[in-house]
Amino acid sequence: MSDHASDFVLQAISFDTLEGWKDDDPSGPFEVMRCCRRQITDVKPYRAGSLGLSSEDLLPLLIAAEDFTPSSPASARGFFETHCRPFLIRRKDGNPGFVTAFYEPEIEVSERPDDVFRFPFYRRPDDLIDLDDGNRPAELDDAYAFGRRHDDGRIGAYPDRRAIDQGFLEGRGLEIAWAKSKVDVFFVHVQGAARLRYRNGRIGRITYAAKAGHPFSAIGKLLIECGEIDRAEISMQSIRAWLARNPERVDEVLWHNRSYIFFREAPSRAIGSRTADPEVGPIAAAKVPLLAGRSLAVDRLIHTFGFPFFIRAESLTHLDQGRPFRRLMLALDTGSAIVGPVRGDIFTGSGYMAGESAGTVRNDADFAILIPNAAAGRFD
Q1: Does 150 share its domain with 13?
Q2: Alpha-carbon radius of gyration of the chain
Q3: Where does the Lytic transglycosylase MltA domain start and stop, copy by copy (predicted)?
Q4: How many Cβ atoms sit within 10 Å of the Cβ of residue 166?
């Protein structure tokens, strides 16, 4: 493990001592695992995180999943018990893991702007460039992965949310569609994807393409610090309600988060034998469709996409009809707010009800990673 992983340890355990494992039915992710294998072998392997696990370490599990169809919850668990070993991820400071949730909003949009549909979703601009150690200006922090190339060749920070909201990109033909609400657009930026329902009934999809580069700043944290919302009450719903009650302060609060997201139009995709349809989740960072309730966003600087995790959050009960959340999940996405070895974001699905479920998830959780047998020996 690299220095980046020095603040946590992996503790080898058995499936018998993995609390909640025998209550789960991990039959659902096998189709997505097959998609991951195709992505790795036919397109491009996933970048390895600092934990030191690679796509090559994952492949034996994905190959075994190709021809396996679980006949029962026990057979699905047996597959992972045969091919993996579980390791608890423990922070050295003793703090627990933490989960939130995300979803794919559905937004009513128009192909053309008018007095009602005024707030655009933008494609990536051509003057936005990827930054690395070779071209990053000295005045920009290492966290900046994107910048602006000026006409004279100079590289600097890209304009932030306020500048873009005030018209920096107007007239460049970058608009994908227009929404009715600036707040709706902002929360699509937070989620990183959306289903777009056009006025003629057509359903489109957009997904993350790039960002302006500025750090993400949580407006919920701002509202807590300003005394506007009690910390115990913070959620997407309470933030939206506050913004609705204080329309004159919407810009002030949203502009606190200087980060700005650009999108690309994404076709509907199929999982396995299912034809392309909007019920299949959006394509996220791992380039495979997300599966509601079984897809996890992780810190990709530490973890590698495609690996299975078992997440146990005893206080998270509203996703499983009052029972504690105990599920096998696949690491398929990431996010700027998902930082640390035991920090995860659970994908709850698409549409309004998925958003209602996602908005109140803020729970301590235990994280176990399931490492394929051949690679597991390196972590004993």
Answers
A1: no
A2: 21
A3: 106-264
A4: 11
What does residue 260 show for φ and ψ, rounded to 5 degrees? Answer: -140, 135
Give the pLDDT of residue 212: 95
Report the distance separating Cα 297 and Cα 333, nearest Å: 4
**SS3 assignment for 249-282:** HHHHHHCCCCCCEEEEECCCCCCCCCCCCCCCCC
Range of the domain at 240: 104-266
Q: Assess whether pLDDT exceeds 50 at residue 276.
A: no
Q: Is the pLDDT assigned to residue 5 strictly greater than 60?
A: no
Identify which of 296, 282, 286 has the alpha carbon closest to the alpha carbon of residue 350. Answer: 282
- In 154-307, the DSSP E strands lie at 155-156, 175-179, 193-198, 203-211, 261-265, 295-297
Which among 212, 233, 266 is the end of a domain?
266
d(CA 162, CA 166): 6
Compute the distance between CA of residue 21 and CA of residue 113 in angstroms, rounded to an integer.
51
Q: For residue 1, is pLDDT > 70?
A: no
- pLDDT for 379: 93
C-alpha–C-alpha distance, residues 249 and 371, integer Å: 48
pTM, full prediction: 0.82
Instruction: Please indicate, yes or no, whether residues 132 and 221 belong to a single structural domain of this protein.
Output: yes
Q: Which residues contact 22 (CB under 8 A, 6 or more apart)?
A: 77
Same domain, 206 and 257: yes
Task: Report the half-sphere exposure of 226 (CA within 13 A, side-chain side).
Answer: 14
pLDDT digits (tens, 9 = 90+) for 20-78: 999 999 999 999 999 999 999 999 999 999 999 999 999 999 999 999 999 999 999 99
214-267 residue pLDDT tens:
999 999 999 999 999 999 999 899 999 999 999 999 999 999 999 999 999 987
pLDDT at 275 exceeding the cut of 60: no
